[in-house]
């Protein structure tokens, strides 16, 4: 699948909406950019959050994103603001491609994943208060089924199967892996 086909498929996806109820409204930017290996190479930008004892997502791999704030005009504005705060990605340099399916997290967030295309030359500058590391994974690797693992996690007395994607010394799991896996399955359809 070439770059144009990938972006077209993502742009035409109609995300499954979820009623948010009392969950905290949040958005993430799923930043895609050209990879280093030719015209059809695509990378996904990920971050690892800094360690904060009070943060339930402390130290986890994530997309840039966070809670909706009063000044945000819509969920896309939230994702763009957070990406600028966390990685200095200028909002006016992001081309919104589409959205992935909404999700409700076990930590009480109603998340809207916004897919954005950015130029490779945009320097990703981690905000040291929020981001411990920024790294990329190629879409080609994400599409390889053998790279994915399912592990059992205990949650409130139950066992649940959770997707994991080990990459470059990081463990992508939880909500981030769930969103990435949704994108992979969408592109495989």
Description of the structure:
The protein has helices at residues 3-12, 75-87, 139-142, 174-188; strands at residues 24-34, 42-49, 61-62, 65-67, 95-99, 103-104, 109-117, 131-138, 149-155, 158-167, 170-173. With 189 residues, it is α+β, with helices and mostly antiparallel strands. It has a single domain (3-144), classed as Nucleoside Triphosphate Pyrophosphohydrolase. The strands form two sheets. Strands 1, 2, 3, 4, 5, 6, 7 and 8 form an eight-stranded mixed beta sheet that branches. A three-stranded antiparallel beta sheet has the order 9-10-11. Strand 6 and strand 7 (109-117) form a beta hairpin. The protein is globular.
Helical segment count: 4
Gyration radius over CA: 16 Å
SS-derived structural category = alpha+beta
Number of spatially distinct domains: 1
What is the 3D shape? globular
Query: Beta-sheet strand percentage?
Result: 35-45%
What is the CATH C-level name? Answer: Alpha Beta
CATH topology: Nucleoside Triphosphate Pyrophosphohydrolase
Give the low-confidence spans. none
Q: Mind summarizing the main beta sheet?
A: 8 strands, mixed
The CATH superfamily turns out to be Nucleoside Triphosphate Pyrophosphohydrolase
Number of strands: 11
Task: Using the 3D structure, state the CATH architecture.
Answer: Alpha-Beta Complex
